[in-house]
Structure formats: structure tokens, C-alpha cells
Amino acid sequence: MSARFGVEEEFVVLDRQTLAPIGMDHGARERITGRRGGGEVMPEYLTCQLECATSPAETRAEAGEQLMRMRALLAEHASQQGAVAASSATPFIAAGGFVVSTSTHYDEVADQLGEITRDHEVNGLHVHVEVPDDEERVRALNRVREWLPTLLALTGNGPYAHGRHSGFASWRSILIRRLPSSWCPPSFHDLDDYTARVDRLVALGAIGDAASIAWAARLSRRFPTVEVRVFDAQLTTDDTLFAAALARALILSGSASARPAEPDAIDASMWTAARRGTQSRVIDPTTGEVGPFWEVASAMLDHARSVLADLGDEEFVVEQFARIRADGTGAERQERAYQRGGVAGLRDLYLSGMSA
């Protein structure tokens, strides 16, 4: 089995001493952005952010090579500026008043969001999985939506806000909740239903266009892909590839439940996942019941295992599950680093993640 996929991961540039986000001038960003050996580095919403996007990949190894190359480039560039590039979903501290990158689209988004933009420093990981058939793409979206809380709990990596612990494993997810059409998408009958619902949101003025849909999983506007957007930005390349491998397998696996859960139930489960990470209780799509996270995660792994094996990802994903159980999620690793070494401990963790 083969299925192309692509990864987009967002980074924030931080002051080396304080870990506060710092904006880059246009010239500095011009020098680093562009196509780089199979991937592309692009400006993101705020001038303190950059995004790395892979070209379509067939294998995990191919995607990993691109991601490592672009991370090394960002790390080198930041070092030359006396800064740190970090793959954390939220910065440790933020002064607010961020500058929006120059772009007609971003200007429209900032105008729509108003005050939200002023403290909306969030960094995510988006995984695109190619599904060529239009209607099958909608069915795949319906399948993966029910696993969103479990995926979020595994990948929470934004525990800090305003220089203190937010109380959440994924503070980014809570900030995202303020956006129109955020978190869990509805269950769709077919492509016409999906298109009609998006068109209605545009007609309401809730979003400017289909590209502004903030659901945690959606159909891509530009590519024949299902785009899973529930993940926080991940500390290491292996963390990113783990999320991508799981997303691809779940999208290509059979239906998880005969009776789709309602969005409010999945949203409530996502909230507990954002709050407590792997200590949460979430909905098990295979039974419709609420269960302890690790029991549901085990059911998810069993559900995806045959596709993971066909794609050559089973051993890697099983190893990553074991590592998270032993060492914790990104949020837990950030918490330990800060407890042991304060700001310097967090800085060292961020730096190590750019070369791993």
C-alpha cells in the first residue's frame, strides 16, 4: 500500500534569553523563505512565525529527510540572529501586540478576528493525506473526526502562557476555540453537503473563504487531501512523523463507528484532552463509550494497525507510543525541562528538538 502525504509545521522565533517571540524584518524572512531541497519555508500569520511544508512524500523516511533539512535551516538562521527557533504550540511568554505578516489574505483574517489577533500566537502541525476520489475523501474525513480527541491528547505541546503554566496540555487548542468553525467538524453526508456547509459559513461572514475553515480536520481547498489540523506543533521530527503516520493510517482505515458522534460530544472530549492530555477520559469511537485515555489509544492503535503495517509504519508507531508512555508528551517534557532548569531548560529543549 502507498499513499502520498504532506506535512506543514509551524515554528516561532524566540529571544534567546527571555523566550519571548520576536518579529523578523522583511529582509531576514526573505533570506530564509523559499523552496529548499524538496520542501518550502514560508512566512506564517505573524512576523515571529515561519512554516515548513514538505513536498508530497510516499514514505515516512522521505518526509523526515525534508523536515530535518528545513529544521536545521531554521535553527541556523535563528542562531545567526541571536534567537531560537522553537516548535512549541504556544510560546512560554508573549508580550502581545504581534505584527501580522504582509499578505492580502492575512490582512483580511486580522480584520475579521479583531482583538483575537493580539494574543493569537499559536503554532500547529497540519497533515495532508491524499485521497483522490471526492466522495471517499468526505468519508475519510468522517472517519478521522472521531479520533480527534485521542490524537490531541497524544500530541499536546503547549503548556505555557504568559510566563506561567496555563493548566492545559494544549493551550493552543483553547485559543483556537475562539475562531469561527473551529474544533470538530460535523459529520457530512457527501461532498455536496460539505460544500454547502462551508458556503453557508462564508455567506454568514463567519469566514472569508474556504481556506479560513478552522475545523480540526477538513478537506483541503487546494489539494485532493484530507487535512488533519488537530495537532500542536511538535518538539521533534519523530514526534511530527508519529502524528503524520497515525493520521494517514486512520484516514485510510475503515469506519470506526456505525453511528457518528455529535460534534458537541467530540468537542467536550477534545476539551478534556487539551486540559489533561494523556490523563484525560475521552470517547472511544469503537464503542461510543467514555474511557481512560490509554485504553482508547490502544483501541485506536488496534484499529489502525493493519494499515500501519501495510505502509511500513507499524513498528515506528508502536515504539513512539511506548516512548510517550515512558517520557511523556511534548507538554510533559516542557514541564519537566522548566522545573529542572527554568527558562534555560526550556531553551535547551527547544534547541535539541531542532536537530532531532
Give the secondary structure arrangement, pairings included.
Layout: E1 5-15, H1 26-32, E2 34-36, E3 39-43, E4 49-54, H2 60-80, E5 83-86, H3 104-113, E6 124-130, H4 134-145, H5 148-155, E7 160-161, E8 164-165, H6 171-176, E9 182-183, H7 191-204, E10 214-215, E11 217-219, E12 225-232, H8 237-252, H9 263-276, E13 281-283, E14 290-292, H10 293-310, H11 314-327, H12 330-353
List keywords for this structure.
356 residues, alpha+beta, 8-stranded antiparallel beta sheet, two-stranded antiparallel ribbon, 14 strands, 46% helix
Question: What does this protein structure show overall?
Answer:
- This protein is an alpha+beta fold.
- The protein is 46% helix and 17% strand.
- It is built from 12 helices and 14 strands.
- Strands 1, 2, 3, 4, 5, 6, 11 and 12 form an 8-stranded antiparallel β-sheet that branches. The chain has a two-stranded antiparallel ribbon with strand order 7-8. It has a two-stranded parallel sheet with strand order 9-10.
- Strand 7 (160-161) and strand 8 (164-165) form a beta hairpin.
- The longest helix has 24 residues, at 330-353.
- The protein starts with a strand and ends with a helix.
